[in-house]
Prior knowledge:
Blueprint: E1 2-3, H1 6-14, E2 22-29, H2 36-46, E3 55-58, E4 68-71, H3 77-80, E5 81-90, H4 92-104, E6 114-122, E7 126-134, H5 140-145, H6 173-194, H7 201-216, H8 219-227, E8 242-250, H9 251-261, H10 265-283, E9 294-301, E10 315-322, H11 329-349, H12 352-357, H13 364-381, E11 384-389, E12 397-398, E13 401-409, E14 418-425, E15 428-436, H14 443-478, H15 493-502
Parallel strand pairs: 5-6, 9-11, 11-14
Antiparallel strand pairs: 1-4, 2-7, 2-13, 3-4, 6-7, 8-15, 9-10, 12-13, 14-15
Amino acid sequence: MDRMSALDASFFYAESENTPMHVGSVAVFEGPAPTYGDVVRLILGKLPKVPRYRQRVRPVPMQLGRPLWVDDPHFQILYHVRHTAVPRPGSDEQLRNLAGRVLGQRLDMAKPLWELWLVEGLADDRWALISKVHHCMVDGVAGTDLMQLMFDLDPEATHEPVKDWTPRRSPTSLEVMAGSVSDSVTNPLQQLASAPGIGSPVRAVKGLASSGRTLAQTVPSLAKQVITPTARSLNGPIGPHRRWAWTEGKFEEFKAVRTAFGGTVNDVVLTAITGGFRDLLEGRGELSSEKLVVRSMVPVSVRRENQKGSLNNQVSAVFVDLPVGLSNPLDRLASVRAQMDEYKKTMSAVDANSIIAMGDFVAPTLLSMGVRAGMQAGQMWCQAVTTNVPGPRVPLYVLGKRMRSATAYVPIAGGTRCSIGIFSYLNTMTFGINADFDGYPDVDVLSGGIRRGIEQLLALAAKKQEGVQAEAATETATAPAGPATKAPAKASPAKKSTTAAAR
């Protein structure tokens, strides 16, 4: 039986009426659009590579074990692949509104947890695909690998024919219960036995003690965050409806800022987002202090190189205080960079995979309660989720049509009313902003503020570059002349003959 990991189960348990827990994307392509039948046949030909897409979740009675993945005997591809259109010529705003409605709706938890929507009617003969996959099934980084399902690197690529599929027999209730009891006993023992560096109780204690010392190093930073004022108005109850907006930036822009002021591209991205939240709060009249921050959870992938393509979640998280109270963009960049540098030291010292795997020791009922309690705690601790998913740097094609852009959708939960999914493709980074409908009537101020934050940093980088060039020009102009060179003396006849002889 294929049982969910503890982390995957936590996303499943987090699902509620007002909290859809799927990730998604909107990809726009050059036209003309393929037919609906062609898209269906393409997906059917690829599904054997990802069996999970034909499986549904089967909870264990009384939560005596984590949920199982079982084949859906009633799987129907036409339910999961949908077809719609916007009035021609459809604008980006119409596509955003449509995508917001589609992505804001819950998946049917009794069926395989994914949907794909073919959207026609966009201006300039474009079309789009809106995809939804539940977070318990795949994380953002694995989702990038899953593009191989339907995306090609070659526009002339050929595709496999559709093959017959027979669902596997579902386990009986007795088998499910027996397997859950067995797993609850044997799995923790297997975890301990296979843990790297932990081959005996003594080494186990030493390993836990080492992790404890490393985690203790983060206590001062956590204590500092406790007393740091946050933008509390960004937290609150979440309703069933969503607002969705997006903006973008070019890699050259982020690299120019990084080259001028140091840090990483991700530091620059987070600083631009800080500028967006500053504009938002300034518009609301809530910039009360220079110390004010917007605390963002930043998921960190701990997927190893040999785990690419696996359909489960391999993520940890850090909490970054976005310094919205600072008026100077460079001060904001320095603050973000210092925090991320510190987290890198901590994360490199802690085996994040082992920490995540500790969830396998938690009883499923307590795990469910713990997830929901943690989400409630997030209402006071975290004001946003910001996740950066690296995408392909080469062109992708679907049925011979080139993808022009892709924007990520990240769920919101636990009183954190806004998430920002950053997705990179070719030379562009897109920022997909998912926000509670009632909590963010001004979501366009946030998206516009992110773009303005990029432009502010870029202008400062250009100004610094101009200063460096001007200083170099001044140094060249004022450099003292070197010693005068004397004209070479005329060679004597003897020397001339010697030279001639040498030739």
